[in-house]
Write a structure and sequence with these properties.
- The chain is mainly α.
- The chain contains seven helices and three strands, in the order ααααβααββα.
- A three-stranded antiparallel β-sheet has the order 1-3-2.
- The longest helix has 34 residues.
- It is globular.
Length: 150
Amino acid sequence: MTTEEATRARAGQCEEQQVTDGPEGAAEQGFDLFARLCPSREVFAELADKWSLLILMSLAACGPQRFSELQRGVGGVSRKMLTQSLRNLERSGLVLRTVFPETPPRVVYDLLPLGRELAELVTPVGQWTEHRAGQMMAAREEFDAAHTEG
């Protein structure tokens, strides 16, 4: 069986699996990212958005940060998207938001243990990306040149 056939077979199996229970029942069955209705897929998609992993990596590298520090550290993120991403990360138990009772209130974001664990896993992927971006961009240019109608 080729890799492509194995992937198709796995996809077919995943489509048949349905997770109908709550989180406890799903945990007993085991989560499966490839299953159409598995709640782990939603979690994965939220983590794979444009900003979440960069935020986690910034917090891991620089430690606790205020909103404006995070916004400067993660270049290009808008206030709206940073707010939304931080809220999702906080909701998922990855980031802790602490409000200090000062005037004006000071808000600091930090990693919770799950967030630190994930940041440790994705940081090498970020480093690999930085080291290999030139090769990938060259491959894209070569592909685009070969597939441009002319």
